[in-house]
Amino acid sequence: MQLVPDRVQGGATRSIRVRAFCPVPQGGTEYRATARSDAFTGVVTLTQPPPASPAATSDPVTTEAPSPEVRGFALVDEDTTPGRYEVDVKCEGTNDTGTTTLTVTARPRATATETRVVPTRAPRAGGGGTAAGAAEDDSPGIPVGVTVAVVLAALGGGVAVARRSSGKR
Known about the structure:
CATH class of the domain at 2-53 and 65-105: Mainly Beta
Shape: rod-shaped
Order of helices and strands: EEEEEEEEH
Oligomer: single chain
CATH architecture of the domain at 2-53 and 65-105: Sandwich
């Protein structure tokens, strides 16, 4: 029997490929097995792989006996505590059994120096008054009202100077 991988890190749900080699039961070519472990989220049914296509073999005339391989995928729960776990496989039809070991390692601990920076607002992207948050603009500068007053005063002063110079001629 084989587990791929046979060592996983805890802290996240992991998928393990389980392969076993069960003898072909008498009276049929279809066979299955079950795999059990305290590390798995449940019982895993192992089945035959699909047959190879004739195009994949080099000699289509030769017919080989089916491989006694059965396989499936098991899930190791993220809450599984670190340690060594037995994985038991039982072949249906022949009641043959096998055992192997799965090792779950501890997840790495975060160090105190690691910090996560989370933005609190969108970046300043321009766009004038259409940008998000433009009404809350806290940048230093001349307020719009003061700018308008200065422009109007300059225009008014220019008009007064123009009248005065046209009246002296």
